[in-house]
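UDP-N-acetylmuramoyl-L-alanyl-D-glutamate synthetase: structure tokens wanted.
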Amino acid sequence: MPNLVVLGGGESGVGTAILAQKRGYTVFLSDSSKLKPTYSQTLLSHHIPFEDTTHTTPQILSADIVMKSPGIPDTAPIVQLLLNQGTPVISEIEFTSTLSAAPTIGITGSNGKTTTTLLTHHLLTTGGLPVGIAGNIGKSYALQVANSSFPSYVLELSSFQLDGIVNYAPHIAVITNISPDHLDRYEYKYEKYIASKFRITMNQTEGDYLIYDADDGATANWLGSNSTKAQLIPFSVKRTLDEGAYLHNDRIIVKIDKDTLIIDTADISLRGKHNYKNSMVAVIIAILQNVEEASIRSGLKTFVGAEHRLEKVMNIEGVEYIDDSKATNVNSVFYALDSMTAPTVWIVGGVDKGNDYDEIMELVKEKVKAIVCLGVDNKKIIGTFGGVVKEGRIAEARNMVDAVSLAQGFAVDGETVLLSPACASFDLFKSYEDRGRQFKDAVRKLQEE
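Answer:
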């Protein structure tokens, strides 16, 4: 039997271990950190050997194949040892796809991929199609293949997951957009990050599709100098297209194979041009999957957006509080600020990933009334925006309760408090989800006071 070592005991690692065991692999899981109790109990109940807080190097190096969790960089010493001896190191996506014949819809991008994945899944299931949803969302792809039999899957895919594919080929691939993100994992070279995203199409054939943002410069540049066998379907909010989807006079117009579907933006539950793009992608996919028009229209009206993504929390004394904790890069904040229609108190900060704030400078000048910096080190944000807002309207906080309290002090009736950090969360929070939950809890406490 093949000998599989799984590096990392999170959702993807544990799911892979269970799938591999069911398919006859000899499995060993190793994590240099302490496993969460729920994962260690799951492994014990399946009688899968594992270790945590250490790596037993000889046992790991004896593997025939290694599945590396996406959070572990290629530069990790144990990964370097494996690569140097020629051991295949792959992602959960690659491993699972070799054990499942179900076609997949793979969605990647710097921003919008979670909302697009959720909306796509919603439109397909509203249309009566039994479709799994996995990748960066919910239960792992591997665990779902191990425990269920969906005929197809919608996968949200990060660049880290795509770095570990070899033969994986989605039937429908989506690149929502590309902007600088995670550059610390790519030697601070933007071109390497772009290339990582386009791995999603490298194994596609003439019978597959690549849906892409025709307004996105990085995407256009790559397509201008590289090729893919997939059929290209663009979308745009800036220009008219002969094929694909575009915005015209507050209507989304979708043209696929000489068929045209026109949807009023008023009939879509999501707001903002970035969400119109997300909706275009989901509608294109639904049409390619033969979902009926009535079901598409119904699904667009009934969809509820992703948690922590421009999520309206509460209106207190005329001030709207919005949780956009998932905005962990500058481009995502651009979309958030662009959608603001009232003077905004902006809560920003965390672990900077090489952010260039120039692209949102004009929006900050136009939309932002005051800034609350929420991070351990706020020098860069204060240095960049200190002269943009009026004197006395930039403040620092080291916890969420203080940040929300400061924001409340700046905001008045008719204005908005927006948590849209542009940074990773790990200086003060466990994750962006933890950051968002703490924001919502702090806002609700304001209501109680």
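DSSP finds 17 helices and 20 strands in the chain. Residues 120 and 282 are 4 Å apart (CA to CA).

Cheers.
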